[in-house]
Amino acid sequence: MGGTPEVGYRIKRLRPTTQAFDRLKDESRLEGYWMLVRLADGWASGRNKFLKRGEALFGAWHGAELAGVCGLNIDPYVEGRDQGRVRHLFVSAPHRRAGLGRMLVETVIDRARRYFTVLNTRAPQEAFGFYERLGFRRVEGEEFVTHRMVFGKGN
Q1: In the chain, what are the domain boundaries?
Q2: Which of 20, 38, 69, 111 is deepest in the core (most CB within 10 A)?
């Protein structure tokens, strides 16, 4: 698709209970990614509705089409509630390489900065450069974290 992501896209809070979400979930599953299936299952069961302090689920809309999603949770893999985790990032194929993934993760970073001291993610190898360009640092030797952003003074 290309172009400037700010043109034609809106990021807003999302409830993954719409037909638009189901279409995106089916696309992700057909590509071999299960994060949106897990997101829908967690929502339906009540395990994860992105309602705890600081949490949010965002959708990127292109008109009536849901073009991407990204969530922020309290990191379930660490003790305490001061670390956030980027969850369930997925962008529809026709909208990739347009800056939409960056927009979604930057939205999560902006929110995380207000609630957490650290933001973690476990990214697939092919996404390492993406997260590093956004300011995440590579983490070695942790099972559930490949990249981390630490919020401090001036961030």
Answers
A1: 10-150
A2: 69
